[in-house]
Design goal:
Layout: E1 5-9, E2 14-21, E3 26-31, H1 43-49, E4 57-65, H2 74-87, E5 93-98, H3 100-111, E6 116-122, H4 130-145, H5 148-159, H6 162-167, H7 169-178, H8 181-191, E7 209-215, H9 224-233, E8 236-240, H10 247-250, H11 254-262
Helix pairs in contact: 2-3, 4-5, 4-8, 5-7
Amino acid sequence: MAINIETIKTENVTMNYFRFGKQGGSPLVIIPGLSIKSVMESAEFIEVAYSIFVDEYDVYVMDRRQNLPEVYSIEEMAVDTAEVIKKLGLSKISIISTSQGGMISMHMALKYPDLISNLIIASSSAHANDKSLAVIKKWISLAKSGDKQALMLDFADKCYTREYASKYHDAFLKIAETVTDEELKRFITIASDLSDMDISDKIKNIKSRVLVLGADKDEVFGMEPTLELARELNCESYIYKDYGHAFYDEAPDCTGRIYKFLKGSSNT
């Protein structure tokens, strides 16, 4: 059955989201990372990927806002996402956040400590580093040049294992054909503020219960930012071996590991 894409408007924000699982169950919000195409187009895939949660959790998957400003900071993304979550009437939520989404969720946890009970941060960092800045700079350059195929293939190469990127090479090319100029413009805006992101000196103030996940072959941030987060937050953590940045799309036990964390079981 197709999932409906909903649009919510607040005083300041218009944002798309979709919802699945047990209505009225424990609220679980997924904040995805940077993407070329909106995750709204992958709703059915995401529902299947996160099917372990559907019997107990009311799952909301958030997009970025529609009416983008010319410059859009990670902190502003956090404020906007929190505004929408509150408008939806959610509180004491659990968040699964990946990559840039992890940066957004950390800002949210600092600004709205009573909003988030459990926080999963995957393949993210409290600050930009040389590796991530170089990767994002290349992606922005490709987007500005309009080379959709090169952008999509480099995105896949940096995020996934070689085997996964090779297996779905033709699929990535087909997706690239559907990317519009407006989507490239949107991608550039959402990607452009990473260089100013640094909350390293604040993350110890996060009060939520946290699980940090990373991968040893992460070609976007590297593994060290995950280790830094685990040390600073003194929280549960796990490093996936022989996986890349988007291990959460590939590792078969990832959602199970998150589920056990949310239910209070140890993952170490």
